[in-house]
């Protein structure tokens, strides 16, 4: 008699074929995003009003700690998920995230906040990286942009909603502890769903690799970690252009996370309205990705990314040039729209170019560079703000962002199969 154990169900790639698991992973990533959202409005204000940290550079140390830790964890997550499977890495990420809201509630000194953000960086690196890889595993090449759009939309819409909610809770009940009660619930729910209901997807990646048709002789299925790092970071034109754009994108996000709430507060805007401004940027970002990921599957990747970086630069320039709730809200919309064009599309580029056998590690390298942007942005913005003031710091970030868009326009080639014919990748050195 035929049994399920003897004949496991055939693996199928595609969004529709894996809709239940895909939808569950979207929900899990929403909880991952919400873990960051608990900090976005409240933590910069805690630095200023509770811990009385005057220097911008010092107050942004929590973002540096988060960014460096998350970046390094992203790099490890790809290797770990290839070696041990996706699900164990996802569950481990949630276990590490459980203490974060408790540390933020009880923190007697700024050192505790930094420690919490180190744990948060590990949590985000393991969980967000893994949900990305698992969705890429499930959907296959045809709907990769849409899959990344839905993944990132869930994470950043949840981030925005939580930033808005914590701003309101802080206005009503104070900066601590009530706003961080949400984080306790998010971590517990994420751990429960990942442990009980999420299924392993590494078999889907193996299935795709077994049926993978190489684009050219440079499409190798077996590379060392060093070779993958070199290709993704420097040598392969599309991968390296995506890596630098990802770094600059999160450099912007570090600026918005660390300095915007302080800038808004110094203009006399109340905590609840600061929460609205802080939430608006990721809300537009999150909503837009449901469209832009799909568009990149039909129009191609390159020019969406280049346009998105330039649109972000325009939004940052408006923040520097204008004052008041309304122009800053317009700037937040511009930044959110630009980031929506960029964020899922960059991940789709990595999925397009990297071989299925080493794609998880390539995603890890890309996310290493992308999330180092948090640290680079916090340090650059903090030092510049301390030396010259908030507005000059913001203008510098706007210029860097525009330059990144030009790099994409010049260096990146179209990677989507419906787009232009891809050039041959740089040869792999042994």
UniProtKB/TrEMBL annotation:
CDD domains on file: MFS_MdtG_SLC18_like (cd17325)
Record-linked InterPro entries: MFS (IPR011701), MFS_dom (IPR020846), MFS_trans_sf (IPR036259), MFS_Transporters (IPR050171), Sugar_transporter_CS (IPR005829)
Alphabetical list of Gene3D superfamilies matching this protein: MFS general substrate transporter like domains
GO CC term (a single one): plasma membrane
Record-annotated Major facilitator superfamily (MFS) profile domain positions: 18-416
Main location: membrane
TM annotation in the entry: 19-37, 49-68, 89-106, 112-133, 153-171, 177-198, 303-322, 328-351, 372-388, 394-413
GO molecular function, one term: transmembrane transporter activity
UniProt keyword terms in alphabetical order: Cell membrane, Membrane, Transmembrane, Transmembrane helix, Transport
Topology relative to the membrane: Multi-pass membrane protein
SUPFAM superfamilies in UniProt: MFS general substrate transporter
Subcellular location: Cell membrane
Protein name (Swiss-Prot/TrEMBL): MFS transporter
């Amino acid at each position: 008699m035929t049994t399920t154990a003897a004949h496991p169900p055939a693996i199928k790639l595609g969004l529709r074929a894996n809709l239940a698991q895909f939808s569950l992973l979207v929900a899990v990533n929403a909880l991952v995003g919400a873990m960051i959202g608990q900090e976005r409005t409240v933590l910069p204000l805690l630095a200023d009003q509770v811990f009385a940290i005057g220097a911008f550079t010092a107050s942004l140390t929590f973002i540096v700690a988060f960014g460096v830790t998350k970046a390094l964890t992203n790099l490890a997550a790809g290797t770990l998920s290839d070696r041990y499977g996706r699900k164990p890495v996802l569950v481990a990420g949630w276990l590490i995230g459980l203490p974060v809201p408790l540390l933020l509630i009880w923190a007697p000194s700024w050192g505790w906040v930094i420690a919490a953000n180190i744990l948060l960086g590990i949590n985000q690196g393991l969980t967000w990286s893994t949900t990305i890889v698992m969705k890429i595993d499930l959907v296959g090449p045809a709907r990769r942009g849409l899959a990344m759009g839905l993944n990132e939309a869930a994470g950043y819409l949840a981030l925005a909603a939580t930033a808005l909610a914590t701003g309101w809770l802080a206005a009503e009940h104070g900066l601590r502890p009530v706003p961080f009660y949400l984080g306790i619930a998010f971590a517990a729910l994420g751990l429960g769903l990942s442990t009980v209901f999420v299924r392993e997807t590494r078999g889907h990646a193996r299935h795709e690799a077994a049926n993978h048709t190489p684009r050219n002789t440079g499409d190798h299925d077996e590379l060392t970690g060093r070779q993958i790092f070199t290709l993704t970071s420097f040598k392969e034109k599309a991968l390296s252009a995506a890596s630098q754009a990802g770094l600059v994108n999160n450099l912007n996000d570090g600026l918005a996370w660390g300095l915007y709430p302080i800038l808004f507060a110094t203009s006399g805007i109340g905590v609840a309205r600061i929460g609205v401004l802080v939430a608006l940027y990721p809300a537009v970002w999150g909503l837009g990705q449901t469209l832009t990921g799909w568009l990149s599957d039909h129009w191609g990747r390159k020019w969406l990314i280049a346009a998105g970086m330039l649109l972000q630069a325009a939004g940052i320039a408006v923040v520097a040039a204008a004052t008041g709730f309304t122009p800053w809200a317009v700037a937040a919309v511009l930044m959110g729209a630009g980031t929506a064009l960029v964020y899922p599309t960059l991940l789709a580029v990595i999925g397009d170019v990297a071989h299925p056998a080493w794609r998880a590690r390539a995603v890890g390298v890309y996310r290493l560079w992308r999330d180092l942007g948090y640290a680079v942005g916090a340090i650059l913005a903090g030092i510049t703000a301390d030396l010259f003031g908030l507005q000059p710091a913001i203008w510098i970030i706007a210029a860097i962002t525009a330059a990144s868009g030009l790099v994409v326009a010049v260096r990146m080639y179209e990677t989507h199969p419906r787009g232009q014919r891809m050039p041959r990748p740089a040869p792999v050195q042994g």
